[in-house]
Amino acid sequence: MHLRSRLSISHIYNLNLTYFKRTFHTSFCGLKGLDILFFGSDEFSRECFRSVDDLAASSSSVVHKLEVVTRPPKRNGRDRSTSSQTVEVPLAPFARERNRTVHFVETKQDFENIQTLSYDLLVVVSYGKLIPAQLITRTKYGGINLHPSLLPRHSGAAPLQAAILDNDEFSGVTIQTLHPTQFDRGSILMQSLPVRLSLDETSKSLGQRLSKVGADMLREFLKTLSEYIDKHPNDEGPEIVIDSFKTNSEEIRLLPRTWTKKIDSRARHINWATDSASTIERKWRAFGLPLWTEIRYFDRHNQTAHLSRRAILEDITIVDNMGSIPSLEVGSIPNLPGQYLRLGPGKQFFAQTVVRTCDGKLLLVQMKQEKVRGKSLVDSDIFDLSSHK
């Protein structure tokens, strides 16, 4: 299952290409340092912000001023009612703990409000919204974005999940300029060396590893930019950012462009007619649990067959050795994709269940008990899990 049809390192870089670094001066000839507005939201951006904030604390000649823009708190729960609790994105409380000003920006008016402020550079990491062109052009050196993939591969909203779903062998981090009208269409300035994915890599573990790579890259980027500005005091405009990394960007061999979509509930759906065991396992590692599927059942009251209800998969294990499941009898093993056998005392629907995948493998899944028209599915005549939607 772990044999990968994967992206080879030879497709990514010439073997003589190394991580781009320079030797930095300990001082920048009296340079004031950059006034930075940092856009972010999640744990990945929090780690990158930490790096910039540490740099600001240790070297005011590189970062003179640092403020944060993030998404406003959202109400938790399905109903989103006024009585439900609001939850902040991870970056907001962390930035406040470090005594940084936090701006909550979501709407067009919010963006217009922060355009009255003056900054040298916009730094965007996992913010989730397109930065308006007017804000970019009003900023002295424009803006940059740190993206957790080797662009242009996995451009878009979910690069971490895409790397796992596509069974990539390597990923990495890219720093690019901000494009005024599109995501991930800027000039590529820096890329990390390829980062190898482990066989059991999850989007969470990959994000944690790439956030550290990105944090180091961002720190080196700001040092390099500050050094270049110090050496070219009469140059102005966003071109400075591109010019300061021109030599490096010319050495980067770009991968073919691919696009990732924003994750919605359909991405977590298991279709037993088309999803192999390895595909299901990658969905689990990419999106986490729970995943979901459909249950077909027979309504004995209305004598209606093959109605469908959603069932939640709360745990998934590929069965490599049927002997490891004592209660699994050979004659009762499911044969067709989506057919299943419930295990355990009383064969409760929420107990462990063995399901056949379309490539002939068996999965051991844990399903959450659902309700159908006010009664539990365990009281219904269940057919199978086959879904041909």
Mind sketching the topology for me?
Blueprint: E1 34-40, H1 43-58, E2 63-70, E3 74-75, E4 86-87, H2 91-97, E5 102-104, H3 108-114, E6 121-125, H4 133-138, E7 143-147, E8 155-156, H5 159-165, E9 170-171, E10 174-177, E11 188-191, E12 195-196, H6 203-231, H7 239-244, H8 246-251, E13 259-260, H9 277-287, E14 291-299, E15 304-318, E16 340-342, E17 352-356, E18 362-368, E19 371-372, E20 375-376, E21 381-382
Parallel strand pairs: 1-2, 1-6, 2-5, 6-7, 8-13
Antiparallel strand pairs: 3-4, 7-10, 9-12, 10-11, 14-15, 14-21, 15-18, 16-17, 17-18, 19-20
Helix pairs in contact: 1-6, 5-6, 5-9
> What's the number of helices?
9
Shape: elongated
Give the DSSP E fraction (strand runs of 2 or more residues). 15-25%
Please give the alpha-carbon distance between the first and last residues: 25 Å
| Structural class estimated from helices and strands | alpha/beta
Q: What is the CA-based Rg, rounded?
A: 25 Å
Overall CATH class of the largest domain: Alpha Beta
Total count of domains: 2
- The overall average pLDDT, rounded, is 80
Helix content: 10-25%
E-strand count: 21
CATH fold naming of the largest domain: Rossmann fold
CATH superfamily of the largest domain: Formyl transferase, N-terminal domain
Strand order of the largest sheet: 5-2-1-6-7-10-11
- Low-confidence stretches are 1-30, 372-376, 378-383
H/E topology pattern: EHEEEHEHEHEEHEEEEHHHEHEEEEEEEE
CATH architecture of the largest domain: 3-Layer(aba) Sandwich
Q: Please describe the biggest sheet, giving its number of strands, its sense, and whether it closes into a barrel.
A: 7 strands, mixed
